[in-house]
Fold this protein.
Amino acid sequence: MKFAHLRVEGSSTPRLAVISQDSALFLDEVMDDAPRDLQDMIERGSAEMDRVRAMSTHAASHGTSSTPIDDLRHSSAVLRPPQIIAIGANYAAHASELKLRTETAATVFSLWPNSLTGHDATVTWPSDLTSQVDYEAELGVIIGRPARNVSVQKALDYVFGYTVVNDITARDLQFSEAQWSRCKSFDGFTPTGPVVVTADEIGDPQDVWLTTHVDGRILQDASSGDMVRTVAEIISYLSKTSTLLPGTLISTGSPGGAGYSRKPPVFLRNGSTVTVAIDKIGYLTTHCREI
């Protein structure tokens, strides 16, 4: 199944919808006590997911009207996650181009919730604060149930679904500070979406392809199979020290091709459009504006 947070034009309130082809079925239109967002649905547990699946199937089979997605606006594919965890230097090519070491232990940092935004959003940043804004295509993983001290072999059993993440980064801040959270957590610097796809539709998370288009140029083009640490290894590693709560978003690192390393460098500018795509999930587009 595919889920999105959508809103009608002129409304600031996102609503949870099941996506089928180019249409959205709002759950609050077909369910009593519908989950208000994806986080609510995940926290209610597997029985709620079964109820949502049954209700959406019933609605589809009975011709219940849905809304064309083109008539709607996207919010972040995840809302109110208990944690946003990012993994750095998880593709050897990206670590090399940024002159970062691939450490024995994973590089882990947090992204701040204000950085979340949705597909087709416009992201802004102060031009006097950063002039090196970069893109990073990443596979996002959403945890479905509490994961504590899980094995690599069982780690994927704890995944609810996957989404597309663009881990936008102010490189000049990143390399002038001893931490990576601030340079990646400007308002809107973590677009996600357009949808969350349940794990059963993805299968092996090490068998999807990531691409990044900036103003029509393909600048990243790689397989998730190139990860230094697999999704299962990341989940197991993180769960050794703390419980991964339902709804936690893990951004699993970016492949090579970042703008910072190109000669000449390619940074996002006023008017740039960047689209990150992951097959089986979709296309996440972000518009850029300096202020």
